[in-house]
Amino acid sequence: MRLPKLDERGAKPLDKAWLTECELKKVLAGELPEDVICQSNLFQSEPRLGIVRDNGVTKEGLLYQAQYLRMSEYIKIGAIVSGIDFQPTTKQRTRFGGEGRLASVEVTDDHILYPPKIQSNQGQNLLLMLLTPADLGCKKESWLPSSNFKKVNRPIIDGKKSTVWEVNINGVELSIISAVLGKTVQEGGWNLRQNCPRPLKSLVPAGSVWFCQVKENLASAIEKLHGFQIGEETALGRGELFAGIWK
Predict the structure, then answer these.
(1) Is 233 left (phi over 0), alpha (psi -120 to 50) or beta?
(2) Is the Cα dihedral 115, 118, 136, 205 positive or negative?
(3) Following DSSP, what letter does each residue of 141-198 receive, concatenated?
(4) Which of 20, 170, 174, 214 lies at a C-alpha separation of 20 to 30 Å from 144?
């Protein structure tokens, strides 16, 4: 296996950290970001545990646990949606979130970060980053972007065999050389329709990165994989990939 080289002892993936669009562009172009935003500057998490009451009387079987987010001032939430006939010319007010707080909604044109421009001599090293958490199943090797990967032992290099995983994703033949993944995110909840708990899922967190090598054209691979989704429940926005250069 080829693992990332650590410049400092104890280095590890950043937890609860965000990049602006400008800084993400640098990462996808093979550069280092200059500014990383702490999650606490954007929102705070508030876990809640309670039970439903009716005129001061508790109701059996209606114990609930929720995770509330308190947004900092001027923070906006964006979502790309389709099939909804909602085109106001001005901002609309609506109740939003678990507490039904008043929020403003504005419809704008799609805004998708375009992939970096690739020169012909950029090589074949590809970086794949998860923009949203991915449900890759709970199998032994669920850290791989697809269950179709094949484990391959390459010829001996410097006296050692090189192990990689090969696959075709959206028409791109590539090999995974290494990966830097964050801690697994667990997600559950309550199924209101069937009145039972939802299965607890383990998701690969956003910001996880795979370091790959493509067999053919790097620019074409980035174009095909940038914005592509992997794993299950992609209709919910899970598993969205951004593609860039690995220098």
Answers:
(1) left
(2) negative
(3) TTTSS-TT-EEEEEEEETTEEEEEEEEEETTEEEEEEEEE--PPEEE--EETTTTEEP
(4) 20
Q: What's the token pair of residue 205? A: 């967190």
Q: Mean pLDDT, consecutive 10-residue segments, the chain of 247 residues?
A: 69 84 92 91 88 76 78 84 68 78 80 75 89 80 73 72 84 88 83 82 91 90 93 90 92
Q: In what order do the strands lie in the sheet with 125-130?
A: 150-157, 160-169, 172-180, 209-214, 125-130, 241-245
- CA separation for the pair 245, 247 (Å, rounded): 6
79: left (phi over 0), alpha (psi -120 to 50) or beta: beta
